[in-house]
């Protein structure tokens, strides 16, 4: 009864065994952190073997959980090892720093992203914001972005409850979820793009 | 639906994910709710160390900011426990358990001490590794049964859930629920702000109790 | 005593990670020995592969203003599932009409069945998932700011 599913599972489980054995042997903390990322991949493989549209919808949360925990863990690693060195200064290019071109380009990206809406739009618009921050240097004013991230999260939750309890207003919920995820992805991308750079100066 | 936890008193439907309140899950839910309320209301004490053999003592200073952050994490942990105790979907259960894991990391990691930070890091790695068997187990359940709903799974006369999926789920929960080991080793129960650390132990206990029900029901 | 030796090993939390990883590896080996596992053919949200479609294999399906059929667990709980159809950005619309390679990227065309699962039928999963991201971000930024 060796169907395709079992053959695939055999391969994925073998990969998992290799990754876990490596993790068990490794002693260095940084290498453990890197190996953890490797170990995550077989778990996504097992989910992918489901081979339905559901699998795709389950991989996304799985992937996000891995990335999120890796983000928190790497920050804990920096604190625990006492690594505080900030990256060196950026290149100073007059055209990027003083001309209007970066502003126009990022404005275009943000507007296009808002038209696209949803996850893709969030990615495009977030890229625009990141580009602007990178070109203009960053001033510590992240509170607005953080507030936007929080509000978008709330919008999303509200649209979820509309979907669940007031299904007749589903269109509103779709727009809410689309707008919420747009804001969320923009905020997340621009935070990630700026937070780890130079700051506190 | 008949299960070890009794017949459901109430079903809360979120699309495909149906939360069920059997006497067993309801009691776990109430326990989590009570402890979340305690965490919200409790005021952490300042720790005093008495110098032995004299009247002298000194207090340990803890920043308000740190306690506020740890209280936030504890409340989040309580809410994650609420979800994990009643959800009726295998994959949703694993996600809630992962949420419990990461909030526990947060509770431990906020303490400003190299030793505790190290414990938080080591625990975080175990929690992250624990998601692998968790998601793997849930995916195998879905592939071999064509459903993730525990109500559907328990309604079947012949349990089609392979033993390996159950074992993977249990091992994953063990990984996420290891927080008390680290908290105890890092002497966190004596550290200032102890009420929040209790949430680590309680959440681990709750997810262990729930996974037993999940495994037997399937 | 063997017990005291075991407890001494476990008491060092640096050793718990190798222990857990070893247990996982062992369980995966047991999993390999328990193969083959039967695959249930009657799955939820089954996937159709249409090799001639330019969106293949990530064709999320549905044409605008019609309702797609979705095989969900509890259809009565999601009465409006199926109205959200896939949508293409202008650029991907152009690519879909000119090349056969658009389907090779997962992000090219959102909407359709994936949005129905993520937002509607299994919406709670998607609520928990950004919450995990949110918590992880809170931990990271808290530690970052404290310095």
Question: What descriptors fit this protein?
Answer:
heterotrimer; A: 201 residues; mainly alpha; 2 domains; 8 helices; 0% strand; disordered C terminus; C: 147 residues; 5 helices; elongated
Detailed description of the structure:
The complex is a heterotrimer of chains A (201), B (218) and C (147). With 201 residues, chain A is mostly helical. Chain A has 2 domains: 4-81; 94-195, no CATH class. Helix content of chain A is 80%, strand content 0%. Chain A is built from 8 helices and no strands. Chain A has helices at residues 4-25, 29-48, 53-81, 94-98, 101-116, 118-136, 143-165, 170-195. Chain B is mostly helical. Chain B has one domain (10-217). Chain B has 8 helices and 4 strands, in the order E-E-H-E-E-H-H-H-H-H-H-H. In chain B, the strands form 2 sheets. A two-stranded antiparallel sheet of chain B has the order 1-2. Chain B has a two-stranded antiparallel sheet with strand order 3-4. The mean pLDDT of chain B is 84. Chain C has 2 domains: 2-33; 42-147, no CATH class. Chain C is elongated, with a radius of gyration of 23 Å. Chains in contact: A-B, A-C, B-C.
């Amino acid at each position: 009864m060796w169907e395709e599913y079992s053959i695939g599972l055999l391969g994925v489980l073998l990969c998992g065994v290799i990754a876990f054995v490596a993790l068990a042997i490794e002693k260095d903390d940084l290498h453990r952190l890197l190996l953890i990322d490797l170990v995550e991949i077989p778990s996504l493989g097992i989910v992918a073997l489901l081979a339905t549209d559901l699998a795709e919808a389950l991989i996304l949360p799985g992937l996000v959980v891995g990335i999120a925990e890796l983000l928190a863990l790497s920050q804990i690693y920096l604190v625990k090892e006492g690594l505080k060195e900030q990256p060196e200064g950026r290149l100073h290019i007059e055209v990027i720093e003083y001309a209007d071109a970066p502003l126009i380009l990022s404005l275009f990206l943000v507007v296009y992203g808002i038209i696209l809406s949803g996850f893709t739009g969030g990615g495009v618009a977030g890229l625009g914001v990141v580009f602007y921050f990178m070109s203009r240097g960053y001033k510590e004013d992240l509170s607005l972005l953080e507030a936007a991230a929080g509000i978008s999260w709330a919008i999303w939750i509200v649209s979820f409850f509309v979907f669940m309890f007031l299904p007749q207003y589903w269109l509103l919920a779709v727009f809410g979820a689309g707008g919420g995820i747009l804001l969320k992805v923009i905020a997340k991308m621009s935070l990630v793009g700026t937070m780890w750079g130079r700051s506190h100066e | 639906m008949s299960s070890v936890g009794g017949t459901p008193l109430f079903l809360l439907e979120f699309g495909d994910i149906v939360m069920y309140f059997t006497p067993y899950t309801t009691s776990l839910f109430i326990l989590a709710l009570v402890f979340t309320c305690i965490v919200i209301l409790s005021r952490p004490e300042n720790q005093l160390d008495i110098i032995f053999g004299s009247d002298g003592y000194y207090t340990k200073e803890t920043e308000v900011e740190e306690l506020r952050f740890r209280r936030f994490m504890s409340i989040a942990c309580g809410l994650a426990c609420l979800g994990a105790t009643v959800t009726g979907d295998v994959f949703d259960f694993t996600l809630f358990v992962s949420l419990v894991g990461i909030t526990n990391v947060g509770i431990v990691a906020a303490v400003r001490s190299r030793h505790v930070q190290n414990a938080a890091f080591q625990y975080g790695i175990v929690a992250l590794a624990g998601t692998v068997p968790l998601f793997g187990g849930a995916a195998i359940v879905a592939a071999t049964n064509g459903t993730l709903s525990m109500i559907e799974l328990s309604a079947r006369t012949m349990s089609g859930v392979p033993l390996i999926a159950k074992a993977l789920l249990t091992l994953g929960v063990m990984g996420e629920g290891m927080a008390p080991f680290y908290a105890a080793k890092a002497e966190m129960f004596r550290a200032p702000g102890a009420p929040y650390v209790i949430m680590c132990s309680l959440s681990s206990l709750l997810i262990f109790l729930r996974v037993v029900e999940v495994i037997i029901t399937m | 005593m063997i017990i005291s030796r075991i407890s001494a090993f476990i008491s060092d939390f640096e050793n718990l990670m190798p222990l857990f990883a070893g247990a996982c590896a062992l369980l995966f080996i047991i999993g390999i020995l328990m193969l083959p596992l039967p695959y249930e053919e009657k799955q939820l949200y089954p996937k159709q592969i249409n090799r001639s479609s330019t969106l293949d294999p990530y064709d999320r399906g549905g044409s605008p203003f019609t309702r797609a059929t979705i095989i969900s667990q509890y259809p009565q709980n999601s009465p409006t599932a199926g109205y959200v159809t896939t949508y293409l950005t202008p650029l991907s619309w152009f690519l879909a009409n000119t090349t056969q390679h658009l389907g090779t990227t997962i992000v090219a065309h959102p909407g359709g069945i994936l949005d129905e699962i993520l937002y509607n039928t299994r919406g709670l999963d998607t609520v928990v998932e950004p919450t995990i991201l949110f918590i992880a971000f809170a931990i990271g930024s808290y530690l970052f700011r404290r310095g």
